[in-house]
């Protein structure tokens, strides 16, 4: 089978005949800046595809998604699709994979390495009490809704830029910075908690009221915030307490093992779930 596989660019009409994966997402990539979509065919049938694109916010890597039809796996089709994308890229390729998954094994087999790790990040309601006991009280914590207009959005942008700067920096364009600011419009300001040190914001637990479970992004407002560890513990304690009072069944945290304050704290909390790796494939010889 392998020697008869052919590769070509994706055509919008292909989405109607692909019977695996999520072909509808390919249509949304067509025409996007930097988009490259290749399909693998065998005897006229599409048996795999790879989509690659540049994100608006993070552009130091090119993201990739590879899918092979279940009945066509084991013939190096996925590997050759990656090679097709690599040959057209001047950036490393990046994707996400759950620890122990086939996707992780595939990327590692191609020489991929983790450049960031998301630790277990789910907190079920049955562990809210235990978490509050570990974190202690939450004095000098206010709701983001009490801040002056625009201040929560400013704090979000500051947090997002510094927490990514060392391993996946925000692209140096107004378009990228505007995309980060736009995310703040989705914040649940009433339940977003801000810890004060000497009357100034020191740490924030940003809350997004996502379907299924509120998502919490928590860190200090800057890398070198004085008393940052203690301030971070206070805002997380406050968010968990508020979630308990309003009957939330589960909190989903969003953070990284590499985050200087949240990472070490998350390792101590009774969080559940699998680790998620952000994986990078280096450039091929031509790309280098």
Automatic annotation (TrEMBL):
Identify the PROSITE patterns for this entry.
GNAT
Domain N-acetyltransferase, by residue range, is 1-133
Pfam families, per database record = Acetyltransf_7 (PF13508)
- Which GO molecular function entries does the Swiss-Prot or TrEMBL record give? acyltransferase activity, transferring groups other than amino-acyl groups
What protein does this entry describe? GNAT family acetyltransferase
Q: Which organism is it from?
A: Acidipropionibacterium acidipropionici
């Amino acid at each position: 089978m392998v020697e008869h596989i052919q590769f070509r660019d994706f055509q919008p009409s292909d989405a109607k005949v692909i019977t695996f994966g999520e072909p509808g997402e390919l249509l949304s990539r067509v025409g996007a800046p930097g988009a490259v979509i290749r399909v693998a065919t065998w005897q006229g049938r599409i048996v795999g595809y790879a989509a690659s694109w540049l994100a608006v916010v993070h552009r130091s890597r090119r993201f990739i998604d590879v899918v092979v039809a279940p009945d066509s796996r084991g013939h190096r089709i996925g590997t050759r699709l990656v090679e097709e994308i690599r040959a057209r890229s001047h950036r490393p390729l990046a994707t996400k994979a759950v620890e122990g998954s086939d996707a992780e094994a595939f990327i590692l087999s191609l020489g991929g390495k983790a450049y960031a790790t998301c630790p277990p990040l789910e907190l079920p309601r049955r562990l809210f009490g235990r978490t509050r006991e570990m974190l202690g009280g939450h004095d000098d914590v206010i709701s983001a809704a009490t801040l002056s207009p625009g201040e929560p959005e400013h704090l979000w942008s500051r947090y997002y830029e510094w927490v990514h700067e060392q391993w996946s920096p925000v692209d140096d364009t107004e378009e990228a910075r505007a995309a980060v600011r736009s995310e703040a419009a989705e914040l649940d300001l009433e339940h977003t908690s801000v810890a004060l040190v000497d009357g100034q914001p020191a740490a924030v637990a940003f809350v997004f009221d996502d379907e299924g479970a509120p998502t919490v992004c928590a860190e200090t407002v800057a890398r070198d915030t004085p008393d940052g560890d203690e301030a971070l513990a206070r805002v997380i304690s406050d968010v968990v307490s508020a979630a308990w009072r309003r009957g939330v069944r589960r909190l989903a945290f969003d953070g990284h093992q590499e985050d200087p304050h949240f990472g070490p704290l998350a390792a101590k909390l009774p969080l559940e779930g699998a680790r998620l790796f952000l994986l990078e494939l280096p450039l091929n010889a031509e790309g280098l």
